[in-house]
Amino acid sequence: MTTILAVVSDTHINSTVGLSVPMCNLDDGGTYHASKAQRWLWHNWLDFWETVTDCVTKHTKGKDKPNVWTVFNGDLIEGDGKNRSHQLVTHNDTTAMRVALDTIEPALKISSRTFVIRGTAAHVGLSANLEEKIAIDIGAERCKDTDAYSWWKLLLDCEEVLFDITHHGNVGRLPWTKPNPLNALAVRLILSYTNQRLPQVALRSHRHLYAETGSNYPIRVIALPAWQLATEYTHRLAIVEPADVGGLVFICHQGEYELIVKRYQPEKSKTWKETK
Length: 276
What we know:
The protein is built from seven helices and 13 strands.
């Protein structure tokens, strides 16, 4: 049997620079229209799930149709728990959750199993309570240790391919240092799994930057791209590199996997020039 594992993270739905449906109704009867940048994110979001659908078609053999499992690897929604940003569609958590459910619908429609990984309290509330509520609503797979619907850490066996998945991870901030923390993590994981089955892949998020160790270690460590463009905080850090936007698609079969990395490049800022 073949199973397709789609992994996305840091969608930050309800952020005015995060992933969003093109239009949503607010609590008092008003309407929010997505910005040009958000419409670009939405277009690529649909393209990503079309890629997953194409993988299903490609790997269907007769009546054997691959399953699709989806992992939302943290910071699914933006709740601004620290009250530090004006970049929110709404401060009403109920409305934000409804918009989040509408936004992830393309994933839910094709997924037979979903996993929600807990993100950062500043975005999803203490103990990731907003993500737990969404996980309950979508019937996500429950954590066997706590019986919660969302996970701090997921050790996932997908067709004999073992994944170590959690939200928080680190990458270097400079282009030439990006993979350095991932290399260190690969060694730490190898040591932590001594006398146990070693995961083939470790997935981390949080930094909104894509990087990976490749085949340099027995565990392939990958930091995922995000679905949020530059926030006020990003501008304050004076980051010059464009956002890493996209997700990962693993085609898993009998202990082996094929990886498709989908990345989307935002347009550069346009030059202002006086017109005569």
